[in-house]
Write a structure and sequence with these properties.
The chain is an alpha+beta fold. The chain has a single domain, classed as SH3 type barrels (Roll). The protein has two helices and five strands. It has a five-stranded antiparallel beta sheet. A hairpin with a 4-residue loop joins strand 1 and strand 2. The protein is globular, with a radius of gyration of 16 Å.
C-alpha cells in the first residue's frame, strides 16, 4: 500500500483541472507580448489557416513561439511563426 500512495498522488495531480490564467490586454500589446505574458501557461493559438495549436507557452521570440506539451501529443512541441497567428485563446475562469 505504501508504494501505491505516490502513484495515486501523481495520478491526482495529473488529473487536476488546468488553472485559469489572467489576461490583461493593453493598447500597446501585440500577439508577441500577449504570448510572452502567458509563458509557462496553457494557451491555444489559432493560425490564419485555421489550425489550432494548444499547449504550454515555452518560449517567445519576435518571429516564433514555441508551444510545449501539445494537447493530444504531450511528447511533442510546436514552433509557430508569430505572423501566422490570428488569435490567442486563454482560459480565464475555472
Amino acid at each position: 500500500m505504501k508504494t501505491l500512495a505516490p502513484v495515486l498522488l501523481m495520478a491526482a495531480l495529473a488529473a487536476a483541472p488546468v488553472l485559469a490564467a489572467d489576461l490583461d490586454v493593453k493598447a500597446s500589446d501585440t500577439v508577441e507580448s500577449v504570448l510572452a505574458a502567458q509563458k509557462g501557461k496553457r494557451v491555444t493559438v489559432r493560425t490564419r489557416s485555421g489550425l489550432e495549436v494548444s499547449g504550454t507557452v515555452k518560449a517567445v521570440t519576435p518571429k516564433l513561439v514555441q508551444i510545449a506539451q501539445l494537447q493530444g501529443k504531450e511528447f511533442y512541441d510546436a514552433v509557430v511563426p508569430v505572423e501566422a497567428i490570428d488569435a490567442v485563446v486563454v482560459r480565464t475562469k475555472d
